[in-house]
Amino acid sequence: MPEHSKGVAVPSRVRYSNTGKGPLLQPIDIGHDVYVGLINPDTAFWSLVKKDKLSEAIGDSELLAQYRQKAAVFAQEMKTLRFGLKPSAVYFNPTERCNLNCDYCYIPGEMRKDGAHMSKANLMEALSILKVHFKKALPEGSVPQVVFHGSEPMLNREAMFAGIEQYQDDFHFGVQTNGTLLDNAAIDFLTSHRVGIGLSLDGHIAEIADKTRHNWSGEGVFLRVTAALERLKGYANYNVICTVTNRNVRSLRQIVDFFHSNDVPACMLNPVRCTQEGARKVKPGDAQLAKHYMAALDRSYELYQKTGRKLVIANFANVIVGIVAPTARRLMCDISPCGGGRCFFALSAKGDIFPCSEFIGLPHFRGGNIFTGDIGKALTSDAFSAVTGRKVENIEPCSHCAIRHFCGAPCPAESSEMNGCLDSVGAFCELYEEQVRYAFRLIADGKEKDFLWDGWDAGAATTFDVSTL
After folding, report:
1. Is residue 78 within 8 Å of 1, Cβ to Cβ?
2. Beta strand pairing call for 172-177 and 238-244
3. Cβ distance 457 to 325 under 8 Å?
4. Predicted TM-score of the model (pTM)
5. 52: number of Cβ within 10 Å
6. Per-residue pLDDT tens for 371-400?
7. What is the C-alpha separation between 425 and 65, in angstroms, rounded?
8. For helices 120-137 and 157-166, what crossing angle results, to 10°?
9. HSE-up (13 A, CA, CB side) for residue 146
């Protein structure tokens, strides 16, 4: 895909017809003073062109001539990215239980309150089975990833730590935790074993953060999580996830300030996934979210300019990478089919296999069980195929949208539960459109690397570059 060439996207509300002999290039207004964009939606090829050169660009120009020579390569790269990858990661729930009762959790309340722990013996057996599976499924030398996920994995700390200790050479391990149980001993263990750590925190002050994240008695946990955050300062392999709801959306700039001031190396500002009813009750408006999200991105850049230190907002960084170097993207939520069942899968505390953790509360998406069945068969089950076969081309109005391969109409679990159908849009169409416009403005101004991880393009190669327009 074009990695460094100037490029663009189009509003989903606008549809253009291909009336010429060239490929369909759709214009998009990215809100830039100088540049407008052209994009081929099928291959995700894009180009930024000056507004006064637009008619030349969509005519029989050098851009089109060079594009035609590379079109088959671009199409194959996109096909491989969407349909040619194999799962190499597992979101592993070692327990169904959680000590918190967050408003928007995708795990049903009865599971989180009274659910099962996976025994230490079963956890070890599951890791052994995963090791054998990945050794056969992945190229030699590949190291798969296991992320202990939630509910709250630290509630089954003894079994989880034993698994990390025994299989530390076989997997890259991570732990996604609410942070309330991260005492000094736990942090020492995790950091000494180079385990990735993800914390969850939804605000810069307790008054905001505790509105959605609290225990079963309604007590907030801001102080305990920030204490863990303080102890993790200096550890490069951690991040913070902020779930954006109508309770904190107006505070995103201040949240960015707070994370930056606490030396957080990377964060995610994740729009709440509206899979469960509780999440839909705290869903922010799409336009409201887009407005405050862009303000948060602006603020992250201001802080970088002021201090020379980046706070990478990872899910937005992935949008940029999905444009400039699609095969280098790290997250797979913003493409269709998404990564669920295709790049990763989820394992419940009972050993059940799901396409993604978001589906664990939806039993009809169960593909099999790691203890009683075969992982390969689960990955090709009807439940998985429904998710891995979800294509944005089959979704309206997404099939006519120029940015469909930079967005992917996420999330299938969300769309299924919100709309009763997998082949339907998710909750935040306008947000994704505005993120893409924002990303293209950064590219036009040469600022995109200021929002990306250092070394993000190591090993990447430019396959197309044209700058005459």
Report:
1. yes
2. unpaired
3. yes
4. 0.91
5. 10
6. 999 999 999 999 999 999 999 999 999 998
7. 35
8. 40
9. 26
